[in-house]
Write a sequence for this structure.
């Protein structure tokens, strides 16, 4: 796809590496006719792209956009994948949809108490955290809650008293940012989620060995949430289906003057996995990088062991004081 040793600027090299990475995932033994044709398409695309960029007829940003489109077109989007179904079962299966959980989610910014009560399609999520008052004085205890039963509702309490909710969607986003990740992969079969099978890769292990990981690209239907345009990659152990690591790209949007605020990528490796009350939990080592211009952005499809080695350590996220109860005993764990 690109010539090793040839002189390319960093942005072009990043694009060609992305093309090679995706083509190699598609072009695997036993991958099937469709994936073989997709790989051939990537090779042809790369050759044309190299010529266009070298001639100055296509900019690197346009090429990156075309590469992403080619990737999306090459692999069908589906609602269910066997590896995801197996992963959900491995991490507790139906127990998640018939239980209540309370835990402490801790990182360098502090700890948040998380509560999740799930009864089939009905849920009640809540988080509690200590926050400084608006004048920077005393610390107040804030509890945010969202539920869909009997109706969709959000509430906010400060030091035990009900407080107004000025932006309900912002409250929902704040809660979900803390509830979603600890319970992965249990919501990867939600109705609004689509998936693409990227095949099996080999990743190194800490002891110098190698591990086969099944890579899946995950996205969301347009309009399903405020972050519906986010795309995630998940890696599952090819044999046990345990979730091993995942990555996502975030975008900070634009300021009032239309200037892009920047964005970045996060790669989370799961460690210290354990089972509590029938559910599988793990701490997360959070790696990442940031960029101030779109020209510096790293395509999530380009993630590989060598790329991950170059990411900086951001934080360690731990799950402490985990308690899981039957629904009949959910009130013993609930936040006020």
């Amino acid at each position: 796809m690109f010539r090793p040793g040839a002189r390319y600027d960093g942005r072009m090299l990043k694009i060609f590496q992305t093309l090679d990475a995706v083509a190699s995932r598609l072009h695997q033994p036993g991958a099937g006719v469709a994936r073989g044709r997709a790989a051939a398409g990537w090779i042809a695309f790369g050759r044309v792209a190299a010529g266009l960029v070298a001639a100055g007829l296509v900019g690197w940003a346009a090429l990156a956009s075309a590469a992403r489109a080619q990737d999306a077109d090459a692999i069908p989007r589906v609602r269910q994948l066997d590896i995801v179904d197996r992963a959900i079962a491995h991490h507790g299966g139906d127990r998640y949809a018939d239980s209540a959980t309370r835990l402490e989610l801790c990182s360098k910014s502090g700890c948040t108490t998380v509560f999740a009560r799930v009864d089939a399609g009905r849920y009640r999520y809540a988080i509690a955290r200590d926050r400084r008052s608006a004048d920077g004085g005393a610390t107040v205890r804030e509890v945010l809650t969202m539920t869909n039963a009997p109706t969709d509702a959000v509430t906010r309490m400060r030091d035990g008293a009900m407080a107004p909710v000025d932006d309900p969607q912002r409250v929902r986003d704040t809660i979900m940012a803390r509830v979603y990740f600890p319970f992965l992969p249990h919501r990867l079969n939600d109705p609004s989620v689509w998936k693409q099978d990227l095949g099996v890769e080999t990743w190194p292990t800490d002891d110098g060995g190698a591990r086969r990981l099944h890579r899946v690209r995950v996205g969301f239907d347009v309009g399903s949430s405020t972050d519906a345009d986010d795309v995630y990659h998940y890696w599952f152990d090819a044999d046990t289906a345990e979730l091993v690591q995942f990555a996502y790209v975030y975008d900070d949007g634009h300021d009032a003057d239309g200037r892009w605020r920047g964005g970045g990528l996060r790669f989370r490796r799961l460690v210290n996995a354990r089972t509590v009350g029938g559910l599988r939990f793990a701490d997360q080592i959070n790696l990442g990088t940031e960029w101030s211009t779109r020209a510096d952005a790293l395509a999530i499809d380009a993630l590989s062991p060598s790329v991950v080695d170059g990411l900086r350590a951001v934080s360690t996220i731990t799950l402490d004081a985990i308690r899981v109860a039957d629904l009949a005993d959910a009130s013993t764990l609930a936040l006020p």
